[in-house]
Amino acid sequence: MFNNRQKNRQVGRHVYIHTNIHTYKHTYMHACMHTYIHTYIHTYIHTYIHTYIHTYIYTYIHTYIHTYIHTYIHTYIHTYIHTYRHTDTQTHRHTDTQTHRHIQRQIDIHTFTQTHRYTDRQTCIHTYTYRLTDIQTNIQTQIHTDRQTDIQTYRQTETQKNIHAYTHTQTHRQTQRQADTHIHLNRHTE
């Protein structure tokens, strides 16, 4: 009675430990790897790149450039030109034209710089996306190649087995024919 209980405990422990190891390894690896890929890559792309584009670039362009152009340049030109036109002197008109040209140059330089920076950011994002696509392609190619190799190996093994079975059958038939011929000749001689 005591031995049976002890045996049952040992079997129970054995089953428990192996089941736990099996469950833990497979479930943990499945959960950890898939969750990590989902969380890190997808969330990272969503949070960093999409939010960055939306918050920094678009908001920056809208707030800084649009507001700057509207508030500073529009108001400044309006006030400056109208004030100095009112004086109606050649000197002031000349000064006004030169100042306006200077402001226009500054605007052009600022706009060009901002456009260049925006293009650089877009290029970086495009390069990152292109690299990510390359990684995905490499993974898919590797998996496909591995599967093809496994299929080829399996087919080759099956072919070898079939050839072996066929050769064995043919040898068996030939041996059987020789045995039958031998028996027939013995009977004929007797």
Describe the structure.
By secondary structure, the protein is mostly helical. The chain is elongated and about 145 Å long. The protein is about 100% helix and about 0% strand. It has helices at about 1-85, 90-190.
**Overall outline:** elongated
Radius of gyration: 42 Å
Instruction: Return the string of H and E elements.
Output: HH
The number of domains = 1
Q: From the helix content, strand content and strand pairing, which structural class follows?
A: mainly alpha
Largest sheet: none
Strand content: under 5%
Range of helix content: over 70%
* Strand element count: 0
Report how far the terminal alpha carbons are from each other.
73 Å
Can you tell me the residue ranges where pLDDT is under 50 for at least 5 consecutive residues? none
Q: Average pLDDT, to the nearest integer?
A: 72
**Helix count, DSSP H or I runs of 4 or more residues:** 2
Helices and strands in order:
Elements: H1 2-87, H2 90-189
Which features does this protein show?
2 helices; about 100% helix; about 0% strand; about 190 residues; mainly alpha
How would you concisely characterize the structure shown here?
This protein is an all-alpha fold and 190 residues long. The protein has one domain.
